[in-house]
Specification:
The structure is a homodimer of 295-residue chains.
Chain A lengths: L6 E7 L3 H12 L3 E7 L3 H9 L5 E3 L2 H4 L5 E4 L6 H8 L8 E4 L5 H6 L9 E2 L2 E3 L20 E4 L7 H14 L2 E4 L2 H27 L3 H9 L5 H7 L4 H10 L1 H23 L3 H20 L4
Parallel strand pairs in A: 1-2, 1-4, 2-3, 4-5, 5-6, 8-9
Antiparallel strand pairs in A: 7-8
Chain lengths: 295, 295
């Protein structure tokens, strides 16, 4: 029934934006015979079934977990410990457990201890997603051409790692292996800081007096609206990201604030050359992203 | 030859991204019989002629300006004073002079004194554009469904204002009348701060050690890349924006920094409720922008 990369049964724990999109990808690529959602929200279960994303949706781990060759945990990072306690007793030897969390050290710390011996625990993070939430926001092809970072812990079974990697490659992702600490440092810069800044700037605007706020919305195409998309991302997911990657995030906020203060000073003192030089350097980064086909 | 909103000859001063896109729009909508570019860069003149954007391109104001019913100044705000000195002596009574600058008080201050009596000076700002520069980046339809802000000074001729407004409406823009000071305050929030923040965050990343910078580019789809697009905008144009709207920009940086510091503190002290509440509020702003069809 299974080959190198496909699974008989895949259990998706939390059928939100990412796991719902993964369900679509697994079906489209023939990588799972049967999909089961373990989900505490009855409305999300109803939507997932109605959309045909999964074959079964239940809040009972004893029904969902045993017999699954792959379990994908797609819940906010702050819920990993609790999910681990719920699914751990039902996991059987040989199963691969992965996750989709945006922080990896915290997942290793919180989910890891609940994984029994003989179960292959391979934390992961797909660099894909939109600002939308819930199973109804599933996107066909979400992972195609995107990176899938896997952060195996020491002693991980090579065959299990290769099997999971091959699954993601068949979905259309490029797989990158990284250690959890390095992941959290890189993502603090590429993802966590940008989200925090976007939340901040949109928050600054939302604190304005009524008439000014109305105009900010009206004229948002002048730059502001680019920030509002990512500031519409799931609040609980992002609360957990910042709380669980605290040290790395605080470090990059510090760097950012120093750089902003330098530009602020250049504006105050009319230092045109400093501004122009800084603004010229940043163009090169954009070009590099376009060249890397990530634009 | 002309009706309410069309012109016999339109002179575009500086044939960059905005004026080149305007040339396309004027032609497409039959709003100008003849288009002349006044441009000091020989390469930009060559491209503009080769693309058929204009009928004539010259660096001689005595050829370009006299006889134009409309003169549109599309140069960085810091060059307005110099352009005023160059075109002023060639302007004739009845001509309408407008501009496309992102700051309006500075344009009134620097360009205004060069406009002779009898010439109608109506500063403007199209809320449209991409991160690209130069005439080759002209976009057909750039202004359709976007706002055109006009900031007439006291005593502006009503007929001239209506004629210019009607031209923009025929191009497909919605016209908003505003006083220059209010414009600069609103745009400091919706445009100038977002651009400064984007330049800062991309600059922070470009200061990283080589291997980390490589990974930032590789995994930029996780949020960072949304900032790099606007941080690729024209460096000279943006240098001038910050220098010429200094007070309003410094005021919003201050607000932003306070808000960022509050979130930083909430992260440090693990105040999850504060974070979640802030991140929930910002979702409403995104919805309002989508409802206003500016997304």
């Amino acid at each position: 029934m299974t080959d190198e990369s496909s699974f008989d049964t895949v259990c998706l724990v939390g059928i939100g934006h990412i796991c719902a999109s993964l369900a679509v990808a697994l079906r489209r690529n023939g990588l799972a015979r049967r999909l089961v959602a373990l989900e505490i929200d009855p409305e999300a279960r109803r939507v997932a079934l109605e959309m045909g994303l999964v074959d079964e949706a239940t809040d009972d781990p004893a029904r969902a977990v045993p017999g699954a060759g792959l379990v994908v945990v797609g819940v906010p990072v702050g819920a990993m410990e609790q999910v681990g306690a719920v699914i751990g007793p039902h996991l059987t030897a040989g199963t691969i457990v992965t996750d989709t969390g945006s922080v990896k050290q915290a997942v290793v710390r919180d989910l890891g201890p609940h994984i029994p011996d003989g179960v292959h625990f391979i934390p992961g993070h797909p660099i894909a997603g939109t600002e939308h939430s819930g199973p109804s926001s599933a996107v066909d092809g979400l992972f195609v051409g995107r990176w899938q970072i896997l952060t195996p812990v020491p002693g991980t079974d090579e065959a299990a790692l290769e099997r999971l990697s091959e699954m993601w490659r068949r979905i259309g992702s490029d797989v990158e292996i990284m250690d959890p600490q390095h992941h959290d440092k890189v993502l603090a810069i590429t993802s966590h800081l940008p989200h925090l800044i976007a939340y901040t700037i949109v928050g600054t605007a939302s604190d304005l007096e009524g008439h000014l706020q109305h105009e900010v919305i009206k004229f948002s195409a002048s730059g502001f609206r680019d920030f509002t998309r990512i500031a519409a991302s799931d609040p609980v997911m992002w609360r957990d990201v910042f709380l669980s990657n605290r040290e790395a995030v605080l470090e990059v906020i510090q760097r950012f604030t120093e750089d902003l203060t330098a530009l602020q000073r250049a504006i105050r003192w009319g230092e045109g050359e400093t501004l122009q030089q800084k603004f010229t350097e940043t163009r090169a980064i954009r070009r590099a992203i376009i060249d890397a086909r990530q634009a």
